[in-house]
Amino acid sequence: METLQPVQEQKANRLINILSLAIPLAVAILLGIRQKIDLGYWTTYLPHINGIVNTATSVLLIVGLYFIRQGNVLAHKRTMLTAFGLGSFFLVSYVLYHLSNESTPFGGEGWIRPVYYFLLISHIGLSIVVVWFVLRAVYFALSGQIAKHKQTVKYAYPIWLYVSITGVIVYLLIKPYYVH
C-alpha cells in the first residue's frame, strides 16, 4: 500500500514539476518571438559569458564528484550549489540574449556540420530533461533525503555534465559566426 507524502514534500514535488515544464516552455516561447527587445549592445557579449559559465559549471561538476568520492560532503555541497547557481545564471543570461538578439546561424561546412547539429540537438533535448533531475537532486540533498538524492544523481549527474560540456563545444563551434 502506498503511503501519503507529507504536505511539504507534495508541494516541493509540485513546484519541481511545474518549473520543469515552465522553464523549457518559457525558453521555447521566448526563442519563437520574432520581435526582439533592444536591451543594449552589452547583450551581444552574453554568449561569450555563457561559454565561460558552462565551462565553469563543467569543472565544478567534476570537482563536486571528486569531493563526494573523497567523503568531503561540505565541499561537495558548496561546489554543487555553486554549479546550480551558475546554471540558473546561465538560464537568465541565455533568455536575455535570445530576447534581444537574433539566433546566430552555424556557418560550418563539411563533416563538422552534422557533428555540430548532433551536439546541438542532443544538448537542447537533454537540457530540457535535466531540469527535472537537477531540481529533484538539489531538493533531496537539501532536505536530507540522501538515499533519494543518490538515486536521482545516477541520472542527473551524467546528463548535466553532458549538457554542460556540449554547451561549451557548441559555443566554440559557433563562436566564429557571431557578428559584433
From TrEMBL:
<keyword id="KW-0472">Membrane</keyword>
<feature type="transmembrane region" description="Helical">
    <location>
        <begin position="115"/>
        <end position="135"/>
    </location>
</feature>
<protein>
    <recommendedName>
        <fullName>DUF420 domain-containing protein</fullName>
    </recommendedName>
</protein>
<feature type="transmembrane region" description="Helical">
    <location>
        <begin position="155"/>
        <end position="174"/>
    </location>
</feature>
<feature type="transmembrane region" description="Helical">
    <location>
        <begin position="80"/>
        <end position="100"/>
    </location>
</feature>
<keyword id="KW-0812">Transmembrane</keyword>
<dbReference type="InterPro" id="IPR007352">
    <property type="entry name" value="DUF420"/>
</dbReference>
<dbReference type="Pfam" id="PF04238">
    <property type="entry name" value="DUF420"/>
</dbReference>
<feature type="transmembrane region" description="Helical">
    <location>
        <begin position="12"/>
        <end position="33"/>
    </location>
</feature>
<feature type="transmembrane region" description="Helical">
    <location>
        <begin position="45"/>
        <end position="68"/>
    </location>
</feature>
<keyword id="KW-1133">Transmembrane helix</keyword>
